[in-house]
Amino acid sequence: MPIQFKKFTLSNGLRFVVHEDHSTPMAVLNVLYDVGARDENPSQTGFAHLFEHLMFGGSVNISDFETPLQMAGGENNAFTTNDLTNYYIQLPAENIETAFWLESDRMLSLAFSEKSLDVQRKVVSEEFKEHYINRPYGDVWFKLRELAYKVHPYRWMTIGKELSHIENAKLPDVKRFFFRHYCPANAILVVAGNIKTDQALALAEKWFGSIPAGEKYLREIPAEPAQLNARKIDVKADVPLDALYKAYHVGSRTDNSYYAMDLITEVLGGGGSSRLFQSLVKEKKLFSNIECYHTGSSDPGLLVIEGKLIKGVPMENADLAIEEELNKLSSGKIEEKELVKVKNKTESAILFEDMGLMNRASNLAMYELMGDAEFMNTELQKYKDVSSEEILAESLLVFDEKNSSSLFYYSNN
Amino acid sequence: MSMLNRKTAPVITDAVKFHLDLPAHEKISLGNGVDVFLVNMGTLDTLMMNVVFYAGNCFENENLVASATNFMLKNGTRSKTAFEINEYFEYYGAYLSRHAGHETAELSLHCMNKHVSELLPAVAELISDSIFPEEELRIYKKNMQQRLQVNLRKNDFVASRIIDAYLFGEKHPYGRYSTASDYEALQVDQLRSFYNDYYRQGRCMIFVAGLLPADMNAQIEKHFGTLPFGGSSRQLIPAMPVHPAEQKKYRLVNDPDGVQGAIRVARNFPNRHHPDFQKMLVLNNLFGGFFGSRLMANIREDKGYTYGIHSYLTNLIQESSLMISTEAGKEVSEDTLKEVYIEMKRLCDEPVPEEELQTTRNFMIGTLLGDLDGPFQVAGRWKSLVLNGLTEDYFYRGVDTIKTIKPRDLQELANKYLRADDFYELVVV
């Protein structure tokens, strides 16, 4: 069943999508800003994410974002990726106007409080420590990104390249960032749930319609040059087990090859009957766990295989065994049954994901960012259309040794 | 058009005015006496089925037997290998997960309705015909030991298990934790025997939710109604006296180079049947239960000591606990603790302002409304009521408590349950 929605563009250029669902008592307001860590200055990384925290520190007319929302029975959160920043509020549909009021005021302008910046610098530093320092293997993605990307800003993490970048953020930087990126021209607004389209449109016009359009931000990001040679680094750290990470360059989220590539990760690493798990964990017993996934990014991304080695297994043997499995994929077509399996899994994953109102709202915003919210309804057919020939062709292209970046992460105890 | 007033909040409907209904379920009994609870609602052709057994770790004689048995339900039957089982479920795009708790353990199926008739017999096969192959257990033991080795490097993981041991005792099912040698000691015979007693012939109940196919009841009867479940006194939850530690304050060093301390402040708390439990949910909410809580406002949003701090009543059946949990910078860990106690004392000494209480009420009712949105969520509520030996009155009493509790009730509760001396305190760096 397709997701029903209507699209509008307000006079200030703000793109607006309404999805009615009268089976729920709730409503969701989702605001996506077309800015992520890839838009940062290399000497000020982590800024898009730090900025997301500051969006909760009060706006020009509303000193406290949280309390009025809670008073309206609502909850909210946000996340930042390398590509985008997304904010969402869920609350009882009767009180949806509170969400419009809050979100529109912080799109209009922030309070830019020195205290909020000071506290959130500390909070984000603790987040950095909690997730990336005080944790075994926490630094892997810093190293892997730097190995795979030499030019493109995907070479740093959303949290930032180093703590000092966050610690050194200043209020004028915050203001510049806000006015460059946080305006109707760079945002997509979605409302979903128990609300009528005409009512939603009236509320959008009322609260967002008068916000100055701002300038559309045109990003000029250097493309990552094709990788010509296999890359590899060794790391030694105080971790209990050796671990192996391999990253391969793949296309972007909007690339035609995306669907075949996504299914390949399922064939390799999706669940208990996937090839890597069955062969390397269960049969050969080289790894205690192994995964395969991709970054799904707006610019060309990475397909990653990662696993922890069984104590005593030499790294080179584990690496070879992975390559053997990849060679199988790039040397012959997969069986029809296996292709049907990964397609069925994908169909089911899409269906279950769409059960949640919040997911539907944020997905509509993300597909609209990709070009058209309607892609949400055509996505499944694109997976169904993938042939075993396309899987083979994509495997051949991706699993070329020259396209690989390997991180051998050794335990020093 | 009049000038838009952005300073004043739009008029809201107080969430306490919302009428909250727990949608009804249908209860049927199968030929073998198994109770099935069905929540038939939703808009998509998907369903969920939880097959719950009284097979938690309170029934095991050796540590980890319950969780290993539960995990290995997917690792081989007389007619299918582990690979074939996984492939079968995945071919239909279904998710089959398993979970072992303290009292119960379960298998959960999530699938598209169109495949349910292929999947139910396969689930039935796992709970009636599993064989626990030696080789599968060897792999499981090794992989779990390795996973444990990695987890033990995480201060947060270490703090979580040790605090439960302080609260309930190291031998208690709620306080017991895994060690490499416990994994090493597992034998297939123990698993097979546990499986036979607590699954094949165990005490079972089934929860189903979704936009259910018309013949769902008949399908369940067909595949589960003749299995040899029965249960005997063996599957009744045993008495579990707790043995809290005598010493209250602990500082442990787990990672000499660590940059944060994993902090737990916790006390024992009665279970859901105690008249204070639902009131405590309200007090806890404003103390540390959500983003706008006092602990978050003070320790994260004012001091910036942590990325997040939360308090909660643990989801346990026999006896609960009140837990405060955070990871804070190593150099501010002690200050974080100090602030936690300051917030407790404020709740003891000063009545909660009416407006803060109203905000908490509206937030709790609003999120409850959201939490009941969808068939799986509703079935989850019913499951929790049934497993805790409660009826729907409990749900409505809880809603009523949120709507009517007074500042003086909260202050009384704080003086009863938020006294610093009663709390265990643990910092793992």
Q: Would you mind describing this structure in some detail?
A:
The complex is a heterodimer of chains A (about 425) and B (about 425). Chain A is an alpha+beta fold and about 425 residues long. Chain A has helices at about 45-55, 65-70, 95-110, 115-135, 140-150, 165, 170-180, 195-210, 260-270, 275-285, 315-330, 335-355, 355-370, 375-385, 390-400; strands at about 5-10, 15-20, 25-35, 75-80, 85-90, 185-195, 230-235, 245-250, 285-295, 300-310, 405-410. Chain A has two domains: about 5-210, Metalloenzyme, LuxS/M16 peptidase-like (Cytochrome Bc1 Complex, Chain A, domain 1); about 230-410, Metalloenzyme, LuxS/M16 peptidase-like (Cytochrome Bc1 Complex, Chain A, domain 1, 2-Layer Sandwich), CATH 3.30.830. In chain A, about 40% of the residues lie in helices and about 20% in strands. In chain A, a hairpin with a 4-residue loop joins strand 4 (about 75-80) and strand 5 (about 85-90). In chain A, helix 3 runs parallel beside helix 8 (about 195-210) and helix 10 runs antiparallel to helix 11. Chain B has 15 helices and eleven strands. Chain B is globular. Chain B has helices at about 65-70, 80-90, 115-130, 135-150, 155-170, 180-185, 190-200, 215-225, 275-290, 295-300, 335-350, 355-370, 375-385, 390-405, 405-415; strands at about 25-30, 35-40, 45-55, 95-100, 105-110, 205-210, 250, 260-270, 305-315, 320-330, 425-429. Chain B folds into two domains: about 25-235, Cytochrome Bc1 Complex, Chain A, domain 1 (2-Layer Sandwich), CATH 3.30.830; about 250-429, Metalloenzyme, LuxS/M16 peptidase-like (Cytochrome Bc1 Complex, Chain A, domain 1, 2-Layer Sandwich), CATH 3.30.830. Chain B has about 425 residues and is of the alpha+beta class. The chains are: A alpha+beta (about 425), B alpha+beta (about 425). The interface between A and B is large, with 82 and 73 residues.
